């Protein structure tokens, strides 16, 4: 997969933030002909969809293979989800992640995404953690995960796979990281409510839709093969907002 995408793990990790790392991965996947969308609600924050419902899903199609990532999830988890769903597409199967981790195919896609971003040989470089407390293991995982632009939950899962921690410790770490993220998200929401203004609507929308789909819609409009009404449905905006959305950043 990495060879087909012309993906460089070193370049991925050389980014400054998880957002930049995901943007690089997304670009390589979209260049292969797959569309990636970030969608976590039904149109407003009042309809946010919890990650317990879905982390992402893939629609296998010969013409327009599609990956949707729940942007309510931690940003450090987006890359893993994108690769998990890409594995589904490579198998030629439509799938939903986050629903049945015990499913054989789900485990297989998890293993592919995990090995892609964090080879098992690297996990074994961590100091022995088998007999350490959950808090101590969590402290060691933090900087290790940050340096590799992956989520702490993924590192914990890889440690469990490698036999470096037991199932009970893995479950405790997973629960700890999830609770910490929910607290962070709550504080972030309160901060945004108290802040004046906010990010530009079109910038946010472009980020969620992705350059590949924006470019396709732009070309279709220029060639006369679609209408602004249809384009608005594809992009999830009103017809009058299509042109401003496409013009910002020069979608081609």
Describe the structure.
By secondary structure, the chain is mainly alpha-helical. It has three domains: 1-117, no CATH class; 118-195, no CATH class; 201-247. The chain contains 13 helices and four strands. Strands 1-3-2-4 form a four-stranded mixed β-sheet. A hairpin with a 6-residue loop joins β2 (56-59) and β3 (66-69). It is globular and about 65 Å long. The mean pLDDT is 88.
**Total domains:** 3
The description of the largest β-sheet is: 4 strands, mixed
Please give the number of β-strands. 4
Radius of gyration: 19 Å
Portion in strands: 5-15%
Overall structural class, as computed from helix and strand content, comes to mainly alpha
Adjacency order of strands in the biggest sheet: 1-3-2-4
List the secondary-structure elements in sequence, H or E.
HHHEEEHEHHHHHHHHH
Which terms summarize this structure?
3 domains, 252 residues, 13 helices, mainly alpha, four-stranded mixed β-sheet
Task: Give me the secondary-structure topology.
Layout: H1 2-5, H2 9-13, H3 18-31, E1 35-38, E2 56-59, E3 66-69, H4 75-90, E4 95-97, H5 104-117, H6 120-123, H7 134-147, H8 152-161, H9 167-194, H10 201-209, H11 211-223, H12 228-235, H13 239-247
Parallel strand pairs: 1-3
Antiparallel strand pairs: 2-3, 2-4
Helix pairs in contact: 3-4, 4-5, 7-8, 7-9, 8-9, 11-12, 12-13
Q: What is the gist of this entry?
A:
With 252 residues, the chain is mainly alpha-helical.
């Amino acid at each position: 997969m990495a060879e087909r995408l012309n993906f460089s793990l070193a370049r991925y990790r050389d980014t400054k933030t998880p957002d930049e790392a995901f943007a690089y991965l997304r670009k390589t996947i979209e260049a292969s002909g797959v569309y990636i969308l970030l969608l976590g609600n039904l149109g407003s924050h009042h309809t946010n969809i919890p990650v317990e419902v879905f982390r992402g899903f893939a629609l296998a199609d010969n013409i327009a293979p599609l990956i949707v990532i729940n942007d309510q999830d931690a940003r450090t988890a987006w890359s893993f989800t994108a690769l998990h769903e890409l594995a589904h597409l490579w198998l030629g199967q439509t799938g939903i992640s986050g629903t049945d981790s015990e499913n054989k195919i789900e485990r297989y896609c998890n293993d592919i995404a995990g090995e892609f971003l964090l080879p098992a040989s690297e996990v074994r470089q961590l100091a022995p953690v088998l007999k350490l407390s959950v808090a101590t293991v969590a402290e060691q995982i933090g900087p290790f995960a940050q340096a590799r632009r992956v989520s702490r939950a993924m590192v914990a899962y890889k440690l469990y796979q490698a036999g470096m921690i037991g199932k009970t410790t893995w479950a405790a770490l997973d629960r700890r990281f999830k609770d910490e993220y929910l607290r962070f998200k709550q504080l972030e929401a309160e901060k945004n409510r108290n802040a004046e203004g906010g990010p530009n609507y079109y910038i946010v929308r472009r980020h969620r839709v992705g350059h590949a789909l924006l470019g396709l819609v732009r070309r279709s409009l220029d060639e006369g093969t679609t209408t602004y009404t249809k384009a608005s449905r594809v992009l999830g905006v009103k017809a009058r907002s299509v042109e401003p959305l496409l013009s910002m950043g020069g979608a081609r």
